[in-house]
Design a protein that fits this description.
With 284 residues, the chain is of the alpha+beta class. It contains 14 helices and ten strands. The strands form two sheets. An eight-stranded mixed sheet has the order 3-9-8-7-4-5-6-10, sandwiched between helices. The chain has a two-stranded antiparallel sheet with strand order 1-2. The mean pLDDT is 89.
């Protein structure tokens, strides 16, 4: 996705938050019953969206419904202007195609929200820049009482052979004591990290010589700022977001994706936070 397309996508996502207000101002809000009817007819809308034209027998076979139900479905579609008769049965009208797409999108995003719930519950509500859609099919790794280090192991697996790492609040996701991560970090990687001042101090205290040598060589660039809503990692092949337990500050969930739109979002987010951070100079 190009930067211009991403900008348009993100602007459209942000604009959705005012949809209800705009509809109300125009007097165009649908009743709850009308919305429920559209969702209830989602299966037949989808069947026609994918397989049209379909006659009543086709609808009955696709949906496993009775003849009476298939006729009731087509009457509703006709009354709402969502389908029309053609040779071979019924097909969706333009409004019907939009309705079918939006019902599918609703289901897709509701399923995504359920999968991403551990992360969404961890993100500060004041930070609305996170966009669900690019992460709808991401891998979600959640800590549990029997295996509290699952998210950390996922991060270690992903770092693998990556030659670059950019991100913020990484030291909260991977404490300096996890030498496997920092051996890789201080190896053949080009690294840009934004951290809390205390986190940067902890990293420098744990690896003073290595940090300073890499900063002097330009292989490691550090920035500091006072607060983060979550953790972010950008690797060669994927991007990941970490959410924390409010009480303990430990990594609760890590969500990673190789989706191009997710990467574009992550890069834009990193750039925004970097521009609002203080670069740390190497000791001369």
């Amino acid at each position: 996705m190009t930067s211009q397309l991403f900008d348009e996508f993100f602007e459209e996502v942000v604009a959705r938050r005012a949809i209800g207000q705009r509809l109300a101002e125009r007097g165009d809000r649908l009743s709850t019953d009308d919305l429920v009817e559209v969702v209830r007819h989602g299966p037949v809308l989808e069947a026609l969206f994918v397989h049209a034209p379909l006659d009543h027998r086709d609808i009955e076979a696709h949906l496993g419904v009775s003849r009476a139900t298939s006729h009731r479905f087509t009457r509703w579609l006709d009354d709402e202007g969502y389908a029309r008769r053609v040779a071979g049965g019924y097909e969706l009208t333009g409004p019907g195609q939009v309705a079918a797409e939006e019902v599918l999108r609703l289901e897709y995003n509701v399923v995504a929200a359920r999968r991403l719930a551990p992360l969404l519950d961890s993100i500060c509500e004041d930070h609305q820049e996170f966009v669900v859609e690019p992460f709808a099919e991401a891998t979600v790794t959640v800590a549990d009482p029997d295996d509290p280090f699952r998210p950390l192991r996922r991060i270690l697996d992903l770092v693998g052979d990556s030659t670059t790492l950019r991100g913020f609040n990484a030291t909260a996701m991977v404490p300096p004591g996890v030498t496997a991560f920092y051996d890789r970090l201080f190896g053949a990687m080009d690294v840009e990290l934004i951290g809390l001042p205390s986190s940067i101090d902890s990293l420098t205290a744990a690896y003073p010589d290595r940090v300073e040598d890499l900063r002097e060589s330009g292989q490691l660039t550090l920035y500091s700022r006072e607060a983060f809503p979550y953790g972010l990692l950008i690797l060669d092949d994927c991007v990941g977001i970490g959410g924390y337990d409010e009480d303990t500050g430990t990594l609760r969930v890590f969500v990673d994706s190789d989706d191009r739109t997710a990467r574009e979002w992550a890069e834009r987010t990193f750039e925004a936070y970097r521009s609002d951070s203080t670069p740390l100079k190497a000791v001369e």
